[in-house]
Design a protein that fits this description.
The protein is an alpha/beta fold and about 400 residues long. The protein is about 20% helix and about 30% strand. It has helices at about 15-25, 60, 130-140, 150-165, 180, 185-195, 300-320, 325-330, 395-400, and strands at about 5-10, 30-35, 75, 80-85, 90-95, 100, 105, 110, 125, 145-150, 165-170, 200-205, 205-210, 220, 225-230, 230-235, 240, 255, 265, 270-275, 280-285, 335-340, 345-350, 360-365, 370-375, 380-385. The structure holds flavin-adenine dinucleotide (FAD). Flavin-adenine dinucleotide binds near residues 14 and 36.
Length: about 400
């Protein structure tokens, strides 16, 4: 008798959408349920810290187009999954109901890390559309905004808030903005570009307390200094949404460990052909670089891992003997990210963070203008970052892929 249990995808965002599309493309026509805790159908997050945040924030402005492939999918929105039973093939949602699954896809991504401080009005993070709407309402001209953290999101929010006429101070435990991703030379250049637009940086500092009764009036730094603030944006990193998997027996050391076919791996080494993991939460090996499994928090990864998982899961469900052949195909996605801050357009390929400490070289242009910087590990190009010069980056992208 045919198995009538659905494939259940947990996480109704980009990774969940892409795996669903790919599963249909593989030929699987059975039931699919996508369960998400947000109330919105999948939407694109990058504009939330860039163009959309500087205009009107709405679901229409960022929603992914619904393709015909996902017309026949059951979307359960506003419904957090609280636990899973791998042996029984069931999961529980926060309203107490239990659902069966034939195969499970984990696509629950990340959430912002928070400061352990009182929940005053005026504190913000930026991960979801609702976050962006709430923050946008408070980024009014003249507002004093403290951005805590100078990674991608902190730097982008600082630029957007400044463009909206806010007084912006970036407080960060790092020495330079985006230093972990770009290295010190480009990090210093990012800071210089921000400072030219009036953003102030307080590096090597952290926020230890808030001022105000019910609403933020300021922050206290670890050196005792106080800064007046109407808005505090916490951009200090993100944690995996994996608590619902706590009893699953899967390897959750940093996200969920998978094999190159995106199949979940248990703490005992078992490869689960009925459980797949995609997007920011997946820790997978990429032999373009080495065999070390890593999580990669870039926009192309939910698409690449979603397509891969959909194809392999489709072969598993077809049960026609093709699974191991499909799973054995090589999977070497090219990490890629971009960022826009003021008039600076950053595009990167590969994994610049893997470079040797002395492996960062200017390849073309000038740091203070448009430039291409290469990142080398043991003499091999593992990453490239362009400030402008998008077209000229492509040969380096090919060089990274060639190994
Ligand atoms: C503001 C912002 C700007 C960005 N800009 C860029 C950029 O310029 N370039 C770039 O390369 N990348 C960028 N990114 C990163 C990129 O958007 C992410 O890599 C991508 O969104 C990851 O997709 P995902 O589907 O894996 O996870 P997510 O998008 O995090 O989706 C996971 C979904 O699962 C839901 N969920 C979590 N737990 C549960 C549960 N228990 N039950 C049900 N649902 C649950 C979450 O609420 C969420 O809807 C940006 C991210 C943000 C937040």
């Amino acid at each position: 008798m045919a198995d009538s249990r659905p494939v259940v995808v947990v996480g109704a965002s980009m990774g969940g959408l892409r795996v669903t599309e790919a599963l249909r493309k593989s030929g699987y026509a059975g039931p699919i349920t996508v369960i998400g805790d947000e109330s919105h159908l999948p939407y694109n997050r990058p504009p939330l810290s860039k163009d959309v945040l500087s205009t009107v924030v709405s679901h229409e402005a960022v929603a992914f187009p619904q393709r015909a492939a996902t017309a026949n999918v059951d979307w359960m929105l506003g419904s957090p999954v609280s636990s899973v039973d791998v042996a029984a093939h069931t999961l529980a949602t926060a309203d107490g109901s239990t659902r069966e699954w034939r195969a499970l896809v984990v696509a629950t991504g990340l959430r912002p890390r928070r400061l352990a401080l009182p929940p005053l009005a005026g504190r913000h993070t930026l991960r979801t559309l609702d976050d962006a709407m709430a923050l946008r309402d408070e980024l009014v001209p003249g507002a004093r905004v403290v951005v805590n953290g100078s990674g991608f999101i902190g730097s982008e929010v600082a630029a957007t808030a400044r463009k909206l006429g806010c007084e912006v101070t970036v407080v960060s435990s790092n020495t330079l903005p985006m230093e972990r991703a770009l290295g010190p030379v480009l990090g210093a250049e990012v800071q210089a570009r921000h400072e030219a637009h009036g953003v102030e940086f307080l590096p090597g500092r952290s926020v230890v307390a808030l001022l105000g009764e019910s609403r933020v009036e300021g922050v206290v730094l670890d050196d005792g200094r106080e800064l007046a603030a109407d808005v505090v944006v916490e951009a200090i990193g993100a944690d995996c949404n994996d608590e619902w998997l706590a009893a699953s027996g899967l390897d959750l050391i940093d996200g969920v460990l998978v094999d190159p076919a995106m199949r979940a791996i248990g703490l005992d080494g078992t490869v689960h052909s009925d459980i797949y993991v995609v997007g920011d939460i997946a820790r997978f090996p990429n032999t373009m670089f080495d065999s070390v499994p890593r999580r990669v928090e870039h926009w192309n990864i939910p698409t690449d891992t979603g397509r891969r998982a959909g194809a392999v899961l489709g072969a598993y469900l077809a049960d026609d003997g093709s699974l191991e052949d499909v799973a054995a195909q090589s999977f070497t996605p090219m990490p890629s990210f971009w960022s826009n801050q003021f008039d600076l357009s950053i595009q990167a390929f590969g994994m610049p963070g893997l470079a040797d400490p002395d492996g960062v070289r200017l390849l073309e242009g000038e740091i203070s203008g448009d430039s291409i910087t290469g990142y080398y590990r043991s003499g091999r190009l593992v990453g490239v970052v362009g400030f402008g010069m998008k077209a000229a980056l492509m040969p380096y992208r090919a060089q990274i892929a060639a190994g």
